[in-house]
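Structural prep section.
Before we set up the soaks we want a predicted structure of the protein with 2-acetamido-2-deoxy-beta-D-glucopyranose in place, mainly to decide which crystallisation condition to try first. Input record follows.
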Amino acid sequence: MAASVGVVFFLLAAALAAAGSSEAALVEHTFVVSQMKMHHLCNDTLVTVVNGQLPGPAIEVTEGDSLVVHVINKSPSGLTIHWHGVKQLLNCWADGPGMITQCPIQPNKNFTYRFNVVGQEGTLWWHAHVGFLRATIHGALIIRPRSGPNSYPFPKPDKEIPIVIGEWWDVDLVHLENRVENRIYEDWPLSPTINGMLGDLSNCSGVIEDNYILNVERGKTYLLRIVHAAVHEEYNLKIAGHKFTVVAVDANYVKPYTTDTIVIASGETVDALVVADAPPGRYYMVAQAVQSPEPSPQIPILVSRGIVSYNPSKGSGDDDTPIVAPELPDQHDATPSFYFRGNLTSLLPQPVPLNVDEHILIAIDVGDICLYAGSPNCMVSKLNNISFELPTTTSLLQAHYYNNMSSSVNRLQELPRRPPVVEFGHSPTSKATVVRRVRHNATVEIVFQNPYSSDLISNTNPMHLHGHDFFILGQGLGRYDAVRDAQAYNLVDPPARSTALVPIYGWMAIRFVANNPGVWFLHCHMEKHVSSGMALALVVENGHTLETTLPPPPADYTSCDNQNSRVADE
Ligand SMILES: *[C@@H]1O[C@H](CO)[C@@H](O)[C@H](O)[C@H]1NC(C)=O
Ligand SMILES: *[C@@H]1O[C@H](CO)[C@@H](O)[C@H](O)[C@H]1NC(C)=O
Ligand SMILES: *[C@@H]1O[C@H](CO)[C@@H](O)[C@H](O)[C@H]1NC(C)=O
Ligand SMILES: *[C@@H]1O[C@H](CO)[C@@H](O)[C@H](O)[C@H]1NC(C)=O
Ligand SMILES: *[C@@H]1O[C@H](CO)[C@@H](O)[C@H](O)[C@H]1NC(C)=O
Ligand SMILES: *[C@@H]1O[C@H](CO)[C@@H](O)[C@H](O)[C@H]1NC(C)=O
Ligand SMILES: *[C@@H]1O[C@H](CO)[C@@H](O)[C@H](O)[C@H]1NC(C)=O
Ligand SMILES: [Cu+2]
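Run finished without errors. Recording the tokens verbatim:
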């Protein structure tokens, strides 16, 4: 329907200097958001997409560039776009989570996001940040080094390929959000997707879905820029007959780590090299959802396959070379994920701050908001015994900026530094808009603790912090022990990320300097979890100088003043 109109304007003549480095550019895109019909599995489904594409357009920038994205909302829903993993230093207004930093862009309105991409290289992504709409509104954000592709800290790949893992839902996603807000958690996608394709394990009435096909040439090296854009489960990604060498996660370089399985959770990105060094043929690339064992609710098995093909001359239809399939781990096995993460270390030594100003322990659990009234659908997620709810009449950032958060937010509560008791289970809780205030430049350490007893509901929870990267100091199974476990922290070369997985039945520790004033969402990236309360807003106060103070909102800021609902068609 709408044509892609991404245009690149170079501010200064984009002359490549002798060293191969280029001047910072202004990269401008227009995102027209509209609905279109897509046909899969015998059904026409109306989906909301950017520029008529699913996945949406990949944005490519060079580190240091400025991005300008005009969002024109021709869809019936209010929405925002979040630039996932972009640090947005002193620019919280452009971060995008709905009702946290701005009100949704209403139908037939537009809004322009302006920000710089500084000090980050690798793969990030963008997605809608109101409820489930991100299931179809997302795309890669690729950041190349300023001094050219020869300055990658790994062998220069012959080709770079975005691999976006998504899911195909044939339900109305705004309706789905309402169901989850009413604590109905029974909806599942029909299939995972690889670059929008469901693959040949999905068929309806004899019509088999297309596979994503990656044509390769023997001996060449491919840099896969893998984005987990699906809304829930963690995925194992394997290619039969090939290995991956992981070189970056969440746009931070890591020491090369060679593995046959990549494990990636919602919100995360992984950059990995693949050498086409297998005997010529066809090999399945498989994305398999990992899920928690019972008593956690079980979902259907979700697997999708693409094909790595050494036979590009033949069309996929008339190629009858057998396709080699990889051996997959058990879908309930959480050890590949735990080991994959345990093997990631930063490429460079890290400046980990050693003196912690704020120690926070966050217990992740389920709770009951009906106080045992016996009514169904009472289950919510909670952090330290509070289940997060979004404000309804103002964005938190606007309220913070005007210093009137307590009068403009209905139920505001400060997250306690630790849970009332470190004891888990489905017990009474309450809802509130939870914030945690920290002073500018404070060193914050957060330990996330999942339920650790196997008779309780426990999940791997990918916790995502906006506006900052953090160091992952450690992970473990069971109950976190402040003395024993802190001694084993990696304070030398921990990976820096913006999303980190809390292992099932275990804990995960992060540390960061709160150097970016504003209101930053900190939440599980599984949509049903964040919608049911697994979130808080980190309020980073201004410092004492102009350079450490959040500037005023942009002139076209979408405040809530002329709106009476946060999503237009709710
Ligand atoms: C087709 O998709 C619609 C949503 O677009 C859904 O309500 C309906 O149940 C689907 N029908 C079938 C046969 O799957
Ligand atoms: C965005 O909206 C403003 C005011 O509503 C309008 O003047 C402008 O032309 C719109 N821009 C685009 C690109 O549609
Ligand atoms: C179609 O899918 C069903 C399961 O959903 C499977 O049993 C069957 O083999 C598939 N058919 C083809 C031709 O792939
Ligand atoms: C790294 O992976 C290997 C093999 O998967 C595993 O045995 C090892 O324990 C992992 N290391 C860490 C620190 O998790
Ligand atoms: C918060 O402050 C702003 C700016 O002074 C004002 O427009 C708004 O009405 C205030 N809101 C509340 C609820 O006090
Ligand atoms: C958790 O919060 C609920 C509701 O406010 C309260 O009734 C309950 O006592 C709290 N639980 C603990 C362990 O403090
Ligand atoms: C932040 O803290 C560090 C060390 O604690 C200090 O060296 C630095 O000057 C501080 N920066 C600001 C802007 O306050
Ligand atoms: Cu979660």
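Observations: The pocket of 2-acetamido-2-deoxy-beta-D-glucopyranose (ligand 3) is lined by residues 203, 208 (CB under 6 Å).
Flagged for discussion at group meeting.
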